[in-house]
Design brief:
Protein name: 4-hydroxythreonine-4-phosphate dehydrogenase
Radius of gyration: 20 Å
CATH architecture of the largest domain: 3-Layer(aba) Sandwich
Order of helices and strands: EHEHEEHEHHEHEHHEHEHHEHEEH
Number of domains: 2
Shape: globular
Function: Catalyzes the NAD(P)-dependent oxidation of 4-(phosphooxy)-L-threonine (HTP) into 2-amino-3-oxo-4-(phosphooxy)butyric acid which spontaneously decarboxylates to form 3-amino-2-oxopropyl phosphate (AHAP).
Structural class: alpha/beta
Number of helices: 13
Bound molecules: nicotinamide-adenine-dinucleotide, 4-hydroxy-L-threonine-5-monophosphate
Main location: cytoplasm
CATH superfamily of the largest domain: Isopropylmalate Dehydrogenase
CATH topology of the largest domain: Isopropylmalate Dehydrogenase
Largest sheet: 12 strands, mixed
Distance between the termini: 20 Å
Helix content: 25-40%
Pathway: Cofactor biosynthesis; pyridoxine 5'-phosphate biosynthesis; pyridoxine 5'-phosphate from D-erythrose 4-phosphate: step 4/5
GO molecular function, one term: 4-hydroxythreonine-4-phosphate dehydrogenase activity
């Protein structure tokens, strides 16, 4: 296989086996919407069984990293990882936690060895991974940071503009990009995690990847406050006055176009969004509730700051839909297209 980012496969980790990850991968393959050069990572027997449950005629073809992929229409090439326990759609079993982690390890190794262009992750279930013995696990994003040995990563979700613009007024014609200063933390711990050091690392990474990965020459970043009305001058919380504002002042002096902190409730309105390229939210639901309202099913999750390209879906395991054929594969399609685009850009940047 040529070591060319356009011909290297996109490795899809199929995620929680009782969730919709296997279904969505098969649905895209069956409908001919799986982009050329994709390979799934998971248990071939599970995929064949799920295809049968969904009534999909998708031959599952086993192969190994580095081998040429089957080019036949509507087949699904698979790099095999064996399940530990049989799966019933919608029913979690912590015995399969190590299997899910193994699929991630295979994808990371393939990217690192130049055998995959990027990894695209279908959803996993954080709770069952923890119950399966991975006590520190909080999500793909943090796991990938540690697996790749980098000090910081940033979670950013973006709507797919071409497919989902709400109209020309929705953040201009560039869609909505929301990055998070903190990720999977209990709300109780969020305020303590908003430190000058973290804000500085996250903002610098966001600025660098908007330039390098998204080709924005001079990124403009709007930053949310943490408290209602951005702290009301210190009367409704001190984090803006004492931490966020001074950090942004320092970053501006270093040449980063970072604006705010703004009251988060009115920042996510077209008039403000049109003026910037990304919003940095202070915590998970502050940013992602808006992003998912704007584009659920047509958005993707990107991990910034990794030495490899990783994109993901904008939704979870949807156990209620597994095995039924009613889940929407749109976000997986967006994540795959974005992964291909980012891996091609990464290759161009390396030249
Ligand atoms: N990328 C990931 O790995 C990822 C992302 C988000 C959530 N999760 C995990 O998923 C699990 C369940 O999370 P949750 O219940 O908060 O969110 P969820 O996205 O699984 O489900 C929320 C709602 O959205 C619906 N939904 C989700 N995906 C859909 C799709 N493709 N088509 C149609 N409807 C869809 C579900 O049926 C449900 O009603 C949790 O363990 C969470 O941590 C993983
Ligand atoms: N925060 C993500 C979301 O709500 O869509 C999701 O939990 C996935 O996170 P990881 O990619 O870190 O697993």
């Amino acid at each position: 296989m040529s070591a060319n980012a356009t011909s290297l496969p996109l490795a899809i980790t199929t995620g929680e086996p009782a969730g919709i990850g296997p279904d969505l991968t098969l649905m895209l393959a069956a409908s001919g919407q799986l982009p050329e050069g994709c390979v799934a990572i998971g248990d071939p027997a599970l995929l064949r069984q799920r295809a049968q449950q969904l009534g999909l005629d998708v031959p599952v073809v086993e192969c190994a990293p580095g081998e040429p992929l089957s080019m036949a229409q509507a087949t699904l090439p698979v790099w095999p990882v064996a399940l530990a326990a049989p799966v019933t759609p919608g029913v979690l079993d912590s015995a399969n936690a190590a299997y899910v982690i193994k699929t991630l390890e295979v994808a990371v190794a393939a990217c690192q060895q130049g055998l995959a262009a990027a990894m695209v992750t279908a959803p996993l279930h954080k709770g069952v991974i923890i119950e399966g013995g991975f006590s520190g696990f909080t999500g793909h994003t943090e796991w990938l940071r540690d697996a790749c040995g980098v000090p910081e990563v940033v979670m950013m979700l973006a709507t797919d503009v071409a497919l989902h613009a709400r109209g020309p007024e929705w953040q201009g014609e560039r869609g909505l990009r929301v990055a998070l200063a903190t990720t999977h933390l209990p709300l109780r711990d969020v305020a303590d995690a908003i430190t000058p050091e973290r804000l500085t690392r996250v903002t610098r990474l966001l600025d660098a990847d908007l330039r390098g990965q998204f080709g924005i020459a001079a990124p403009r970043i709007a930053v949310c406050g943490l408290n209602p009305h951005a702290g009301e001058g210190g009367h409704l919380g001190f984090e803006e006055r004492d931490i966020i504002e001074p950090t942004l002042t320092t970053l501006r002096a270093q040449g980063i176009d970072v604006r705010g902190p703004y009251p988060a409730d009115t920042l996510f309105t077209p008039r403000h969004l049109r003026e910037v390229d990304a919003v940095l939210a202070m915590y998970h639901d502050q940013g992602l509730a808006v992003l998912k309202y704007a584009g659920f099913g047509q958005a993707a999750n990107i991990t910034l700051g990794l030495p490899l390209v990783r994109t993901s879906v904008d939704h979870g395991t949807a156990l209620d839909l597994a095995g039924r054929g009613t889940a929407d594969p749109g976000s997986l399609g967006v994540a795959l297209r974005l992964a291909r685009q980012l891996s091609q850009r990464q290759k161009t940047n390396e030249r």
